[in-house]
Amino acid sequence: MLARIRRWVVRHRLELALVAPMATYVFGLTLWPVCKAIFWSFSNQAGELTLANYRQLFGDSRFASAFLNTVFIVVVGTFSELCFGLFLAWCLARNFKLRGLVRSLLLVPMGVPTLVSAINFMYVFDNSGYLNELLIKTGLATQPINWASGGLRTLLMVVAADMWKVTPSVMLILLAGLESIPEQLYEAAAVDGATPWQTFRRIVLPLLKPAITTAVIIRGIDAFRIFELPLVLAGRNTPFLATFAYDEYQTYHNIHTSGAASTVLLVLILVFAVLYLKAAKEGDDLA
Amino acid sequence: MSSLTTTARRRAVAPSRQGLGPLAALLLILALAYFLVPVYIMFKVSVSSPGEILRQFPAFWIEEFTWRHWEQVLTSGNLWAPLRKSLVVATGATLLTLALAVPAAYAISRLPPRPRYAAIIALFFTRMFPDVGVALPIAVTFLKYNLLDTDSGLILAHTSLVLPLAAWVLVGTFNTIPRELEQAAEVDGASRLRALWSVALPLARPGIAVAAIFVWLASWNEFTYAMYLTLGKRTLPLLTYYYITRGNWFQSAAYSAILTIPVLLVTLFLQRYLRSGYLSGSLKG
Questions:
Q1: Which CATH code is given to the segment(s) B80-247?
Q2: Chain B, 172-191: which have a CB under 8 Å from a chain A CB?
Q3: Considering the domain boundaries, does residue A115 fall inside one?
Q4: Percentage, residues of chain B above pLDDT 90
């Protein structure tokens, strides 16, 4: 066994030497810091091991709401982005005039930094902003709505901003999936007399599954880490796990609770990725 | 009669042979408005007189065009130091990232399938770490070594952030270059490194360029690490955020526009490279 490993290392020594600098860098500036944050979360200032940081977090109502808000954004945000992205990809897979122009225009949010998209939506959702103006002028509301006041409406505001920034990328992933479905399958379905809905449900959706899985995993992971949007739009009233961890460090200078919040976030992301991949796989076996 | 009913029934047709129905077209127009109006509003606010924005019903169309806020941005002197820092950090992070990722990505693409797959999964795995969990220990370490607020500190941090994404894109690039081309050079007496340098690298140039641009933009936009690692010397995104916390709508609109313009131009020019494989690493929420 050892001899085999040695032979393998010798045969691939050039490859290993070329990978080594990057591997060292990733270890030193990503993996090691994460381990340190996890260690801090289980220790106190004297360096003794303790669960006190987690006890403090779980007794903190701000942390509880940060946790729930983050899960809400992941579930509702990712699901809406998936549906919206699927609709846009479905439109772009069709043949119509100005299709190229529409595609380019739909990609505009990808060219806007996340921080700037938060600022753009601040102008829209402000108390005397454009959305309230639209709602009052169309008679849908009589009073200006305070979108940042907390609760469901603030979460929906963050979802709207997140959807704006991210749906184009989801759309591109799904469009690539749609375009890889061979045309003959549609013709075969037509010969068998399938309706458009049956074709969508029985042919397009199953074949689109790998693209959907990619989009959900990538989107879900990033939605857990949402930072700029709530920082600018929601303020302190509506904490999320990432902004909570930032606040613990920057405002309270507590690296231990900040590390604990990051660790909870990391565990959530890992559980989400593993469970989703497993569910997607089991669905495959059934189909 | 029976033939009439079968032709009248709606049949499934390949989407590329279909047009848009009126309902879908209407929804698509609404979607376009949703995507474009916020960007318009940002540019509009940056060239509007305060009177038409800071009132109960802000004006949607430009009523009174003014360069005042842009003049303030360009003449106040606050722009240049952050702009310099952002440019230096983005360029430095791009160079360091390429120096590390190009050789590594080449090597990964030349490994046997199983270790290659393991390396790609490991790269993806690092994308799961929350930024706040990585930035916190880096900030504490940098504090100890006086790297907070420095260009080089932020270059080091941004490189760690974008390295997996760059390697991901580059592995894809090198995968498309057949190993046989290098082997032909080796038959002619070139060493493997020489074959990499004179055969594989020139062929990979377009992919390297795309990776470089993505990395540069990721660093230019980056916010979370910059927040943790900055005390006083802000980058451009931090300066923009500073004006928001000060409640200055017009300055933040103008700075937002400065921040956006390069990213928007590059995104639209390079849109054919925005494929799902590249996106895997570059999505950010």
A1: 1.10.3720.10
A2: none
A3: yes
A4: 50
